Amino acid sequence: MQEKMMGFKCRRCGKVMYPPHERCLSCRNTEFDEISLGDECNLITYTKLYALPRGIEMSPLTLGIVEFRNKVRAMGQIMADDPKPGMSLHPVWGKLRTIDEKEVFGFKFEPIL
Ligand SMILES: [Zn+2]
User: Ligand 1 center to residue 8 CA distance, Å?
Assistant: First the structure.
């Protein structure tokens, strides 16, 4: 079970990417080291979606962009009733949706209390 969100740090220029790309977005290098993105991030912006694909139990779905301490940004479900830009969140591994009776897991973001 995957519990830490991992980023990919370019061995040449040090840029950290998430999700991984085949080539570094800055210098086109193809070698990376896997690093932890950390346990804490801040909400940058979010949107609430009311028209959802099948298999998503959260309605409305709050989809947000978060930024980690190392400036890496990621997108995912925000598990807050009243999300506010700037709030502190941490990634948790859990079920995102069910597609044809198969459960899809990924990271969601919960408020740090
Ligand atoms: Zn690079």
Answer: 10
pLDDT in tens, 14-40: 999 998 899 999 999 999 999 999 999
What is the pTM for the complete model shown? 0.84
Distance 76 CA to ligand 1 centre (A): 25
* pLDDT tens string 58-85: 778 999 999 999 899 999 999 998 999 9
How close is the Cα of 13 to the center of ligand 1, in Å? Answer: 4
Give 35's contacts (C-beta < 8 A, 6+ positions apart): 6, 7, 8, 9, 16
Residue 92 Cα to ligand 1 middle (Å): 28
